Here is the input.
Amino acid sequence: MNLKQATTDHRKISIAPMMDWTDRHCRYFMRLLSPSCMLYTEMVTAAAIDRGDVAKLLRYDESEHPIALQLGGNDPAMMTQAAQRAEEFGYDEININIGCPSDRVISGQFGACLMRTPDIVAACYRSMRDAVDVPVTIKNRIGIDDHDSYEFLENFVETLSAAGCSKFVVHARIAILGGMSPKDNRSVPPLNYERVFRLKREHPELEIVLNGGVQDIEQIDELLQQIDGVMIGRQAYHHPYFLVEIEHHFRPEWPMPDRQTIVERMLPYIEEQLAEGERLSRITRHMLGLFAGQPGARAWRRHLSENDHKDGAGVGVILDALKTMPVAAQAAIARTAG
Ligand SMILES: Cc1cc2nc3c(=O)[nH]c(=O)nc-3n(C[C@H](O)[C@H](O)[C@H](O)COP(=O)(O)O)c2cc1C
Here is the structure.
């Protein structure tokens, strides 16, 4: 692999932090699908790191690099301590969540509501930046509630930029706080890419990554004409093979694995995790979409979801799921079994 090329690529394409979705098993799977994209963890709160089982919260597989830990919080001392732990664990980037609109997060006064108080975020940012060498970045919305203007976004970004932040991942829609679910907050407020483009145009010195609604490679190519990077969430989760196509697009020399090969490559990892006491469904739930759009996708999904949670379920469930699929999958089954 051309290392310089891969470095550039992973800065351009990243997989969004998604609570309950981008856990370590999901990220291991995604790394097989795309060796060079940047992976983000689910949000972990600084408070959880302060009082929880850090080894469990921050655990990841070495293959997941480059990997960013996303932190939630608003207390400079606690955020700094969490950043230090993240650095000790070897994370490549620490990202601050300024986009989550959930009630739990609002009541904790962090996430998206912090867009209203950029000085608090800047205080956290400065303290974290002074304490660690890894890059600290921000993921924010373009606005919140009735603060829906370019000036509001720019004021937030300029305050953080003055505190030393040079990379912003911008989810290109506002968040509505209170009364709208996180799910609706990812689709109801309209996307406004133009506001993100303008931010990049007027602040070319900043690294601006656009997030929200990215669906296909043509769109990625178009977006990259105007901004520095693209972060993909739901499309990558529901159609994981999209990541293989993206990797291939940026690195045509990369030998593109087919879907069955990806399954085979997951098996040793799954065996290892099961031996540690993990349940099969904790891992396979992330693989349900692997065959999306292909013949047999329904059979694959159904067999896994009906069987992966049963007591003692092992990799046999996955091999059987492949067997329920049409002929195209049979060769792979033979290879796996042999
Ligand atoms: C299930 C789920 C959980 C999410 N959890 C987080 C999170 O922990 N932190 C965060 O910054 N954004 C979170 N998001 C938002 C995504 O990172 C992303 O901003 C959003 O889905 C828009 O991108 P997309 O249209 O490519 O999915 C979550 C999204 C989903 C679907």
Q: What stands out?
A: The mean pLDDT is 93. Residues 74 and 121 are 7 Å apart (CA to CA). The pocket of flavin mononucleotide is lined by residues 16-19, 21, 42-43, 70, 97, 99-100, 139, 171, 186, 211-214, 232-235 (CB under 6 Å). The chain has 17 helices and eight strands.
